[in-house]
Amino acid sequence: MSNNLLAGKVGIISGALDEKSIAWKVALKAHAEGARFVLTNAPLAMRMGEINKLAEQCEALIIPADATSMEDLEKLFSGAQEHLGGKLDFVLHSIGMSTNIRKGKHYGELNYEWFQKTLDVSALSFHKMLAVAEKLDAMNEWGSVVALSYIAAQRVFPDYTDMSQAKAVLESIARNYGYRFGKLKKVRVNTISQSPTKTTAGTGVGGFDAFYDYADKMSPLGNAPAEACADYCISLFSDLTRYVTMQNLLHDGGFSSTGISEDIVETMTKLHS
């Protein structure tokens, strides 16, 4: 059911790879709520994904961009404004990649060149997006920028390795640029710390099934699904959250506030009986 929460609003949605992607679901929800937007992803990711199908469903233009390239980002933000007929109201940063995780590197044996690439793609790209948006004066007042994070920025998840640092940097950028953009243009900048989610990227992390099940048993509401995360993104793009900024918003079914759950106690008791 649509409430037209984004009627008349325009923006950029990055990171939609396939139907499992949170960004894909955000695009569908944004379209249903009346928004118009440009889709973007890295050229390589676009060849691997099905973004053309999404673009057709949402009547959206695709502008390929390497989010680590200032030149590409300038073309993206300029092209989006030209196509959409004005400044932007919302931007979704849903970008993350770790070659160390893909190659199964343990935390003590990280390849540092890959580590730097993880930081560049997964975190510094967020700063670059915001800097380009500022430089081009691409955002409307009271606009909203949202990036997707994970609680591994604050807690240890051994197989998440260098992505933990990337998410910590991402959240710090949201606070610091949120202050700057708020003062300049009343633009809000937030991150959403989402439950483990069975996306293509998420399931690539070693031991994913184990910590997905663990988080589900720890959370009184269970893991928040991708569709619910998309709803949360829409609320942050809307005018209903005008004074929410510089926050890392936990969208995890209560996982982050639970010390131990009855389900975990029961499971451990059975193991020891």
UniProtKB/TrEMBL annotation:
Pfam families: adh_short_C2
Pathway(s) it belongs to: Lipid metabolism; fatty acid biosynthesis
InterPro entries in UniProt: Enoyl-ACP_Rdtase_NADH, NAD(P)-bd_dom_sf, SDR_fam
Enzyme class per UniProt: oxidoreductase
Signal peptide: none
Catalytic activity: a 2,3-saturated acyl-[ACP] + NAD(+) = a (2E)-enoyl-[ACP] + NADH + H(+)
UniProt superkingdom: Bacteria
Similarity comment: Belongs to the short-chain dehydrogenases/reductases (SDR) family. FabI subfamily.
Binding site for NAD(+): G15, S21, I22, I95, K167
GO molecular function terms listed in the Swiss-Prot or TrEMBL record: enoyl-[acyl-carrier-protein] reductase (NADH) activity
Keyword line: Fatty acid biosynthesis, Fatty acid metabolism, Lipid biosynthesis, Lipid metabolism, NAD, Oxidoreductase
One biological process term in Gene Ontology: fatty acid biosynthetic process
Name of the protein: Enoyl-[acyl-carrier-protein] reductase [NADH]
PANTHER family per record: ENOYL-[ACYL-CARRIER-PROTEIN] REDUCTASE, ENOYL-[ACYL-CARRIER-PROTEIN] REDUCTASE [NADH], CHLOROPLASTIC
Annotated coiled-coil segments of the chain: none
Active-site residues from the entry: Y150 (proton acceptor), Y160 (proton acceptor)
Enzyme Commission number(s) from the entry: 1.3.1.9
